[in-house]
Specification:
homotetramer, about 500 residues, alpha+beta, Rossmann fold, 2 domains, 7-stranded antiparallel sheet, glycosyltransferase (chains A, B, C, D), magnesium ion binding (chains A, B, C, D)
Chain lengths: ~500, ~500, ~500, ~500
């Protein structure tokens, strides 16, 4: 599903775009450099821009930059402008619409009671509705981010203390959010009541850490303490950590697609190892969709763990039949029209020597628009494959996500308008198999999907949205719109 | 052997640095854009800088840039300055010593008889000696590149026609070279008599191509015609190709390390597929150095094919126990001293969940200084591995290369000063095994090394240099010097 | 008073820093390019950053850049992002405190009733007080600019139509402001009731223009219509212009220092030509402070018109005895400490040949800290001047400005702590003479200062502030603080 | 003659472009920073690019940058790469033809006997002829600069010691040159036998300096010692200075146009002060071309000293009737075609208030193509001038320069194809007057031009070239070619 597989960036996206990553630390002298490393480990959750806000006991410092963490936040001059023993950071997928740095988080505001910074992973599904209410009351928005809506709700709260104001504000939110906030005295972490996005707690020699994934703890050798619970608000000061559950607790519905694609394989979420889940998926897939073939080839790199599982489950040898060129920057432009039409293999190349005359099983994580799958199947055929079978490590993706993932509108999702056989014809494979929804639940060690009370958010596969979608006119009215406005 | 494995670039290099890549095309209207793509596919042979020279029937155009091809040569403005139906290009590892663009190839000179450009992969072992002779005759050098020595030899030749002058010049060279030259009428390709570096011929709808590796043909859908032979000079014009063998032909001695590490897995060189050789290596290694263990873990990414072979040969499961962060730019600086001492895992992370309590076989391609291996073993131990066994997909590297590879001086090569057991203690593994030199020859489908007349250049393993090393005072006098001056 | 006269930018400022410039146009297809030219002509009012907001009938576009207009806004790509037949722009002196682009104007907000952009020249002396009130009501400030306070006052207004809301907001302001606003339908211009900062109305083939100075009309060949009057609000639409005087009208008090230094010599303000006023000043100065000397030398470039007037008035020849190096960028850093101590003449050089053995009258516009004057006198002495007399084209500057000019705090103003004789000793001149306040009024063709009802704001000379200074605790309580926070 | 007067850089040049400046110092620890300052003072001789070569007792360091000295060479990182107690530098007008940094001086070569750097102001009129000879002998040229020809002549010299080789080389040159060379032990200065370009010797606390103009001594407080004489070669070591006159001495012919336009007003050359000469010119011009008028207005900035002299000589008041916008970067692009056709006044504006109804004498330094004069006269008329008279501070420029000045080809010079009356009609003035050639000689304190043995090079006015022009086919064969290839 890696959409830039064979093509330059001028093409329409053919993947679910990663969401955002958040990271915060309190109680360590060089807080901002540590946040930089944490964000670096979360770079797969958002590659386009990042920001850090620190507090040094006297004042808040803000830096926001477009580009990879390793290129922007590792300069001494940048870090020197971020003093303090507490800091929070955010990395995001994109800066849409010429907005430049305005939408880069964390956002910061000077309230009457002092400064406050906030970083957000997720998407608020009633943000526009709330924004219109706030504007009528005199609020001025300087970004198009739903995170600014949260800030304004805090600003307009009639409560007194910052934690109360924060809880008052998030109590008005609907949708998915994992938040990290920073005031002069406190670092706050919060997850929405369904716990759709991840957030975990770590410890680095006594300093508290909040991070989207455990891999961001590993990079600095921090200890994993526990996941923040759905609906939980934790308030961290120099003196320790308090836990609040201000809202009634619904059943958790963590995003199951985090296991399929978004999270890093070495992260553990809710006591499950992501790599292991993906291998389980491959084994389930081999069981549900067996095929007689000569080799199992992963579509690099996201299909690799499932392909290893598939090979193990099926007994068919695992081979790197597609070689990836790691040097493709995100800016590679195919220089001329004549070259664009050559079908240039910028990013991957079939290893013809291994493929020629063979029956090949390709394993990929998902199919979005199908254009990438078409090209890769074509590449296999040109390399001489005798048969090409495609196995997909998830059920068909039929519905857009409103919870912080950038997905094409429904009508652009291949599975929303074709049967599996039509899809197989479209991408020109000899056979095509998807994992079932129950197979996916089994891969995460559930007996299957509990349709009465689903254990996860799986709306992209089932269309079963766990919240009202106010800005969309309610969940029965999901429009077929591009969701580029999603952010988080 | 990927030296930036766990560390930032401030550390000493702990790898054999890739050499250069060359690419040329004659007979295609958009020659420079095609060269750009070819160089992009050869980026693994040199990532720091690149250049292209084109000729449009009237004049030569030259562009040289520091940075990745995809960032520098894909701009329309750059390509618009490179018109013509013929062009040659070069990608190189580094621009040492503040020399900036002066050493970036292709080099170009205006001779009395017209312009000439040249791109070089290899290293001339009597270049300094020749340079001193030329300076005494009045030559002015504007770079420190051995390639400029070749240009001056052509300029001072007393022959008349450019091909004769070219042959006159290379007849004075000693060492390794694969050259691509461009005059107003001709594109010239040449390989040294031992054929140490690769060079192949391709065809794109009637346009001739010269390229370091076949993967550069694949990216543009060009047809592989044949390898240029050791000692061969090919002269290509609009009317066709001529082949010359101006020198007596010694037995070929292709660089066997190209198979181990340098070449891309999907390339075929001298009728062998690189990926397949590496898998063979893994199987030989499992046969020669068996071990009782729970899982085989590749050191990503260069150890992966051998690890797959090792797993297949040993029956031990293959697992991605180390996860790579693809977002590490080459510029990542660890921001503070305190963080530098944390042992930050910038580039790789152990997947603790898979490693804990297990007996692990790590497979890597080679050991140079050993510092990287130390760190990765340590990372495995911190992740809870019960035993750590290291298997290396080549014999111990004991001698520096003088043929176009940037290697540390001999005294810095761990294997030159330690026994295998001492090395095992140094990197703190439970067992350490290298491939034998005969095992390596078997992996390339030879019955073994013919010590009377070795089939390959394997000097880095054996110290058996196939040429005189004039600039070093002869091959019996190899000094323990840093070879940073090597280029090509 | 040009503070970078002989020194690099690392030194403390020794000048009154220029304020801001504003420009707007409605009714011309390529509005943004015209604004670019207008801002270019106003560059002397603010060199560090600029912004433009345009409206194309559907949406507002915003561009803000740090750097000179000619370098940042002349790129086609920037202008292409600013479509529309109406646009307003702003150029400003500096972006203090690492705030980067956040404080660059025009500021833009999306109100409940539609978008609104505003550009401001001046300074609101109760902005902080208002900001605190607004924050208590829930307003979030994203800049430290007083202009944002104006936006929030508009947002919180309980009036309905944008013009009413605008008037409601500015009715709460105290201080100096010349404002240009842009809504979907209207361009609004406003000057504070005292008319401290300039603003004029122009016409370009039927398109309306608002500009800080007439030189911004000249650059595009626009016709000067009239000055906007103190306390006037003009509302411009496609259908014409309306004028409002919503507040009681006090006597105008235009900033007299605009004539002395800020405005461009070719501008006309309130029916006076700036160059002519400066020549008049020089003649008054010669009359009030005669001296027997051989030549009159201007301190380039700001002292030149007064020096011409002084020469004309005194009959002493005018000579360019100091030569300016026009190539000093604002970034020139003196590279080493040893060089910094050499007293390097980066920007000006005495023409020794003309100076040696002569009695020289230097004419400068003002003395702020005196350090620049010291250096230039020293330069004259080293060039062999027999006598050095300094004549200043304004009265002593004794009080800081709170109306949009960046001045040092009172205690840093040389004239606030020394008598004229002490100042003469400090800068080491043979004689020093300032213009009297009445002489200055005569130069603008008034009979003298009407102390009962002064015709101008001359607070920097007299300490007589024409408004309450609420943020300073009232005008009787002017603190000796740096006023870096001033902006506008 | 300031060609960008009213127009953007897209127009054809309408001025004689400044030549190059050179500067060297030996015997001062921070040599490179001092050279930086010297080049900054010479920036008017070449604004596009600069270079410095230093030697620290062990090795030479080279830095070349495009841009203003103050932006490129003041960075600590740049200067830190230029250690040593001796250094030479060069600033140049332009980098024509995409050559980028290749043509930026000083050039450096590693000879058999050691390194040598050279910086050149002037132009060698047999450089191409010599280049062809050298190429036939095997020389490879890496730039198109005539300076490289000098380097090759040194390299091919059969003499032994560097000074002998240097003299051997320059003995083969024809044309104009002021050279500064640097070897490991010596700094060499040389002027061509006619002394066409300036070069002077200075002293800074015992360190020797060579510089194009005395203003480069003033900036660092160095003492002027003497001009280097025509045909002189000085060799400077730590032990002192030797003077050589290796060639027969013709009569000196210094470029008289240096006084008119190129040199800085505060420089003294051959015992004449440039500002004073320009004032003399103005007075001669008033005497030769009297006119009845109300005010004398300089075309800023190059016409100002002559205008002061004209005003003094004629008794007509001097006024700044044209105001210059100092913020025009060299990159200002007029953003749209419609704006380009508005006749936008980017750089200058008439001060209508002073001009309206007046009889104006404009004073400019020269007329090249006449297009700029046309525009400025038009601007005066639009500002309401009753009469416009133009007085030019030099004779008509009728012939191109081959000695280091970038001039249009002969056919583009207005004076080469029109009478004075035709020129007056072309630029639409009421009267036009040029200085006579004898008037110009009187302004430099000669009784007049000695036509038998002219005291100066005045070829641009007279067509009387003082050297053979070999590359042009001899001086009787001056082709009407663009001389963009000139450099120096």
């Amino acid at each position: 599903m890696d959409d830039s597989l064979l093509s330059g960036p001028e093409n329409e996206a053919d993947s679910f775009r990663d969401e955002c990553g958040v990271f915060g630390i309190l109680g360590r002298d060089d807080a901002a450099p540590v946040v930089t490393l944490g964000l670096h480990a979360l770079q797969h959750r958002g590659q386009e821009a990042a920001g850090i806000v620190s507090f040094d006991g006297t004042q808040f410092s803000v830096e926001r930059h477009i580009g990879l963490i390793g290129d922007t936040f590792t300069k001494r001059s940048v870090l020197d402008r971020l003093p303090g023993d507490r800091a929070i950071g955010h990395t995001r997928y994109s800066t849409t619409g010429g907005e430049g740095l305005r939408n880069v988080q964390p956002l910061f505001a000077e309230f009457a009671g002092g400064g406050f910074a906030i970083a957000h992973n997720g998407n608020i599904t009633n943000a526009l509705t709330k924004q219109r209410e706030l504007q009528k009351r005199g609020a001025i928005f300087s970004s198009t981010s739903d995170t600014e809506t949260i800030l304004h709700l805090i600003a307009f709260s009639e409560k007194t203390r910052i934690v109360e104001r924060f809880i008052d504000a998030i109590g008005q939110l609907e949708g998915a959010y994992s938040l990290v906030g920073l005031s002069q005295k406190k670092m706050i972490g919060a997850r929405d009541p369904l716990g759709i996005r991840p957030l975990c707690l770590g410890d680095l020699d006594g300093a508290y850490i909040l991070a989207s994934e455990t891999c961001a703890l590993d990079i600095i050798g921090a200890r994993f303490v526990r996941d923040i619970k759905p609906g939980e608000v934790v308030v961290i000061t120099e003196n320790g950590i308090e836990s609040h559950f201000p809202f009634e607790k619904p059943s958790p519905r963590f995003c199951i697609f985090e296991y399929v694609y978004f999270a890093r394989p070495d992260s553990n979420i809710e006591s499950r190892n992501v790599y292991e889940v993906r291998k389980n998926i491959g084994m389930e897939l081999a069981r549900e969709n067996p095929v007689d073939a000569d080799l199992v080839v992963p579509v690099p790199d996201s299909g690799t763990p499932a392909a290893i599982g598939f090979a193990e489950g099926s007994g068919i040898p695992f081979e790197l039949g597609i070689i990836r060129n790691h040097y493709v920057g995100r800016t590679f432009i195919q220089p001329t029209a004549s070259i664009r039409h050559m079908g240039v293999k910028l990013k991957h190349n079939a290893n013809r020597h291994m493929i020629e005359g063979k029956r090949v099983v390709l394993v990929d994580d998902s199919i979005v628009r199908g254009t990438t799958s078409q090209k890769i199947v074509q590449m296999m055929r040109e390399a001489g494959a005798k048969e090409v079978h495609m196995r997909i490590a998830s059920p068909p993706t039929m519905s857009p996500c409103f919870y912080g993932v950038d997905t094409p509108e429904k009508s652009k999702l291949l599975a929303s308008r074709m049967s599996i056989q039509e899809m197989a014809d479209f991408i020109r494979v000899d056979s095509l198999g998807f994992l079932t929804i129950d197979g996916l639940y089994r891969a995460v060690r559930e007996p299957g999907r509990n349709n009465e009370a689903p254990q996860f958010c799986d709306a992209c596969f089932t269309g079963d949205y766990p919240t009202v979608l106010t800005d969309q006119g309610g969940k029965d009215n999901v429009r077929s719109l591009s969701l580029l406005a999603n952010n988080g």
